[in-house]
Amino acid sequence: xxxxxxxxxxxxxQEGEDFTTYCNSSTTLSNIQWYKQRPGGHPVFLIQLVKSGxxxxxxxxxxxxGEAKKNSSxxxxxxxxxxxxxxxxxxxxxxxxxxxxxxTRVLVKP
Amino acid sequence: NAGxxxxxxxxxxxxxxxxxxQCAQDMNHNSMYWYRQDPGMGLRLIYYSASEGTTDKxxxxxxxxxxxxNKREFSLRLESAAPSQTSVYFCASSGRGGxxxxxxxxxxxxxxx
Lengths: 110, 113
Fold this sequence. Notes:
A: mainly beta; B: about 50% strand
């Protein structure tokens, strides 16, 4: 079945630094979504990418969908303590359900 | 709009006890989902309902049953709770199948002793 994997599983970042988390699918995706879950909270939708090679920005967050529509990345610049949490990607192949990756847990060192 | 609501927020059960987790959404969404999230882990789909009157198994359905009571409500039942079912349970809904944004409830934190 469809599998979605995220790396790294954990990301320790110094405040002010940049980092990137990656999402890889075993199958070609119709779209990919990103969610953020704050500690003790529930996942909250951030963005959806649909087109091959699509790039979208939300302030310090840059999301990219790969040309082959099998991978995606989230890049955060100038990390802040408010960025702490777990970032999930979720991909949907045609005819399938949305499948969540295992998440990247981000810890920020002040 | 309250979005997605879940009850209870916390629950402690003894092994073998049964309980039902309730979920309701007021966004007129067709699809609803139940996930479990174990400590430090990702989300695993238990059951989903693509529309009122239909339910399907997800990745980890064993030990659970669901009921799509109406368009608004989707309940998850544990018939005989086991310690392995200790987890946080999230309900979610979406507008038109899995390709749309999923809106999550606040979760139910369940401990089975």
